[in-house]
């Protein structure tokens, strides 16, 4: 599958976005959106999908450490379903995002980034980790 892939890390306050290169090999941080409500958030994401000719969207699924789904996972699935309806032909997939925000925080702490700046970057970096993990899994499974 060639074409850009967009990853979404849904938070309560912000939404982190990451975008793949056109060949679908590497993930780059794209943007952090301040949450304005589902309708406006969906409008903005659909706009980014159209603007970059995105071929697939990956939404982080915040599973509990046990692997079970809690209320945040349920909310993410509902958001992804509404996004899929809005996008029509563009597939929307869920991807296990356990520990991506923790990994992102650790990376930013290791880089000695100030707390305020980390807050602005962590959601985007978590989206990058979600997307790169998904892309790498495609290569490993021979689907890439």
Give the rounded overall mean pLDDT. Answer: 86
Would you report the number of β strands? 5
Count of the domains = 1
* Class by SSE composition: alpha/beta
Q: What's the oligomerization state?
A: single chain
Rg measurement, Å: 14 Å
Cα end-to-end separation? 6 Å
Largest sheet: 5 strands, mixed
- CATH architecture label name: 2-Layer Sandwich
SSE pattern = EEEHEHEHH
CATH topology: Nucleotidyltransferase, domain 5
**CATH level 4 superfamily:** YqgF/RNase H-like domain
Helix content: 40-55%
Strand content: 15-25%
Number of helices: 4
Q: How would you characterize this protein structure?
A:
By secondary structure, this protein is of the alpha/beta class. It has a single domain (4-140), classed as YqgF/RNase H-like domain (Nucleotidyltransferase, domain 5). It is 47% helix and 24% strand. It has helices at 38-51, 71-87, 100-110, 115-140, and strands at 4-10, 14-20, 27-34, 54-61, 92-96. A five-stranded mixed sheet has the order 3-2-1-4-5, sandwiched between helices. The longest helix is centred in the C-terminal third of the chain and has 26 residues, at 115-140. The chain is globular. 30% of the residues are buried. The mean pLDDT is 86.
